[in-house]
Design goal:
Elements lengths: L3 E6 L4 E8 L2 H15 L14 H31 L4 E11 L6 E9 L12 E6 L4 H14 L2 E4 L9 E10 L2 E14 L21 E7 L13 E15 L5 H6 L6 H36 L6 H21 L13 H21 L5 H12 L5 H9 L2 H23 L1 E6 L2 H13 L17
Parallel strand pairs: 5-11
Antiparallel strand pairs: 1-2, 2-4, 3-4, 6-10, 7-8, 7-10, 9-10
Amino acid sequence: MTIAVQLESLEGLKRKLTIEMPWDDIDATVKKEVKKITSTARIDGFRPGKVPEKIIVQRYGDAIRQDAMQKVIDEKLKETFKEKNLNVVQITAVDLEQSEPSAPFKFSASFEILPEIEFKNLEGQVVKKRVASIEDKDIDEVLTRLQNQYKEWVEVDRAAALEDKLVMDFVGYRDGEAFAGGKAEGAELVLGSKQFIPGFEDSLVGVKSGEKKTISVTFPEAYHEPSLAGAATTFDVTVHKVLTGKIRELNEAFAELLGVKEGGIEALRAELRQGLERELGVALREENKKRVLAKLKELNVFDVPNVLIQEEMQRMAQAIQAQAARQKQKVQFNDMNRFTQQARDNVITGLLLREAMIAFDLKVEPSHVTKLLEEKMSAYENPAQMMQMYYNSEELIEQVKGEAMEMLLVDALLNTAQIEEERVSFEKAIQSAHNHEHGHDHDHDHDHAHDHDHE
């Protein structure tokens, strides 16, 4: 009897392979394993290596046969996938359809395959490439924000207003009992900063130094600590100081306050420009990558393996949970389907970049990794130390290689397209990047715009 192979195409990229074959291969595998066990088996009443094969079969025959069937199934599937040029993502099920010796051995395997993509690059396609530059007014705006951030706080003898700072003690109560993490002494709060939970700051507008006040606030339903989510609470607050902020002058003392020891404001402006250029470069790169990928997806439409989408959904959830754990918080997902669309998009992106990498025959060189690392690490106080940390971690350096490859691919794809430059302001370029960032991985059951440090 010859081997009979039947391949069925099911929904999308799902396939089913049914194989019917004689028992010869399984019998041969069983005999081989019996001989192997016989040569080493130790059974009372027999010398080592002298146990009769029939005794081995009596004791271990069923297990040996099961192992032999599994081994033959694995081998035949591997052979058949190769013969039929099937790029299998994952086998989802294997079923024994006939395993009695009275008839041929028959089994089936269900699996998903990768799509066959006839890759189209951006040749002849118009891509709007975003460009921007740093102007003096952009640095002026940053300096203004820093002046507001580093105000000189002066104590005043009047009722507190928005943008004033309070120094205070507080104790939080729920159902008349103080709750864990609801107490602080000497806490500082700028009214209107939205640092605390909604309602807390508004209730303290108008208080004076030395005043004691009890306020009632309800925690948000989506609060990260489940025991306080939606809870009605009261806080006993004792105000020690009311301070108003005075804007500091832009002078050498202000530059020194921000860590610039020499060169005064001009040196500070140069340092700010360097930081803004780094931030702008990342923002433009991400925006243009997004546009290139969007155009690629328009040109290359294909089915996506569901198993890869499910794996990506799990990866996304685990990444968010790991981030929350680092912040000593817990995240629960009531509905994993919220990740489906983004996970599908991520998988499509990965498959397209894989095809582009093959099409352009690109390779990440050490110089690419070094250049990207230098750019990333320039934001740190000790760039050399941070670079060494990356080079000492295989996982981190692989991430950088992946980013470098993406950059090479996007540049290669842009070189095949018709480029139309779209010039925007620094502010618009950065804002678009922030909007894109917050519209994705942060979609989960934790409210980031929350409260005071609840320790």
